[in-house]
């Protein structure tokens, strides 16, 4: 039975650096010599793809190399379950995680890599004030616990001086590793949407081009967020912000559309047996519209003046010839559709008389229907300027005050409508949606609201730092007082959770027939449950006694169980079954992919009935893949008990047996 320690890969978050090296080794095995990369050979294999110039185009700043290393360093933490803070713990698929998002993103790598459809974040804007994400390269978990007041240590949040954060460096060092890690979580057709203002839009776009690739740029939407205009600029009153969008892999995405607006729907005034439609001219009016550019798209279409039907062949009925001629100049142009496309969808075309300079003549039009082939309203590409009233942040403030009984607990919340628009663009009703700067929980609210509106089954993962709220700070006093009223700790994460509770209740009240997921599981970032070797050189005897049990004092079976889920790459909402076998609780996770038995004591005479019971249950579960069995190492009465249990399991095909 292998004993797992804090240094084993199975008890750590994903090692992204090692994974990168293995992928490189698989592609270019000849570039490795004695386990090391031979860059000279690698450059030869890559040929002209290597840029060896001293001066290169790109974005550089002090600390970029360290920020890149920070993203590659595995986390030493875990996520501890908090059912008491959650809603519908046993059934929900939504997650609300309290913690430093850098560490949480590392911990999510094994379980959620390549599974997230939409990342929607609203990071801190660079206003020259304090950042609450001062990452510590040596021990970020300890730093996080000190900053949030969970352990004594005296770490303070440092101010950004005019020589650092105000001039972009600190902001980039904070964002860069988080962007790198978040990209790994996206599906191949995934979308990352980042809210930002003028202070950092230029740097952010360059950083995203490096992380995602320039070819994966999707859009830079302009949001009319403040109609009155911000008065902070000397020369202008800014009324807008941005949402910058990049795809994981643009080639994996066929289209991104949103529902037609009410104004656009009003354009569909005509109707036939297939529904409402509008007329679009078939002649190409932009791009390569001239005949010499696309000669195969220049051909005649024949019209029956009696029925206004069309044909590609001239007949006794279809005798009126129409060519794609530009009316104003008489130049020969092209049609938008090829002959084969017209032949296939000829019922969607119609001829109409139009008057041009006093002369009536026929032209060809496409019937553009408001509904798609499945009967639902078809989508349209989103315009790059969003000036609808529902995206106004002042309206969002009113929404929040109503939800919180008139209390203005959060400044400048994002509108729910804005996130719902991004959910439309991601176009997957079963998507996982991630927001690792959750703030006031707008993304979670929007996911639940959109599911209630269209019957979707989207899931959300929110991550929010439990940033302390100071009642002496006038900007934080209302929120701090509200936490006191709830009897909860004074931090932003508590406000986030309360918003989710109230939003879920409001959605249920407004949609009583909706049976979807309105709950969430709460997890909190903490140091690993597995004790690392930290010798007290002044008292080595006591250190040895303390480390007989590798599990930290005060950690529960549930804590250990969910760390195993994370480190083995299982979903934090995966079904967990529990049986009592030989008076011991045994947990089956993921249909038997993981079997865990973590009591404090396992006696010699309990080994055989426990092992046989686990074997029988494993046979009944019949998991599709290999099973890992995990026990608490210190629970066994002695090495004989441990060896006997492992031997019985091995005899029945359970060979992957581990102890903590």
Structure notes:
The chain is of the alpha/beta class and 660 residues long. It folds into three domains: 333 residues, Rossmann fold (3-Layer(aba) Sandwich); 108 residues, no CATH class; 111 residues, no CATH class. It has 19 helices and 27 strands. The strands form six sheets. It has a ten-stranded mixed β-sheet, sandwiched between helices. Strands 1-27-26-25-24-23 form a six-stranded mixed β-sheet, covered by helices on one side. A four-stranded antiparallel β-sheet has the order 11-12-17-16, with no helix packed on it. Strand 25, helix 18 and strand 26 form a beta-alpha-beta unit. Helix 18 runs parallel beside helix 19. The longest helix has 19 residues. It is globular, with a radius of gyration of 31 Å. About 2% of the residues have low confidence.
Write the layout of secondary structure elements.
Blueprint: E1 2-3, H1 16-27, E2 32-33, E3 36-37, H2 39-46, H3 64-72, E4 77-81, E5 95-98, H4 101-107, H5 109-112, E6 116-121, H6 140-147, H7 169-185, E7 186-196, H8 201-212, E8 217-224, E9 240-247, E10 258-259, H9 262-265, E11 270-272, E12 275-281, E13 301-303, E14 310-311, E15 320-322, H10 339-344, E16 349-356, E17 359-369, E18 379-380, E19 385-386, H11 393-403, H12 416-426, E20 432-435, H13 442-454, E21 459-464, H14 477-486, H15 492-510, E22 521-527, H16 540-546, H17 557-568, E23 576-581, E24 584-589, E25 594-597, H18 604-621, E26 628-631, H19 639-651, E27 656-659
Parallel strand pairs: 1-27, 5-21, 5-22, 6-7, 6-20, 8-19, 20-21, 25-26, 26-27
Antiparallel strand pairs: 2-3, 4-22, 7-9, 8-9, 10-18, 11-12, 12-17, 13-14, 13-15, 16-17, 23-24, 24-25
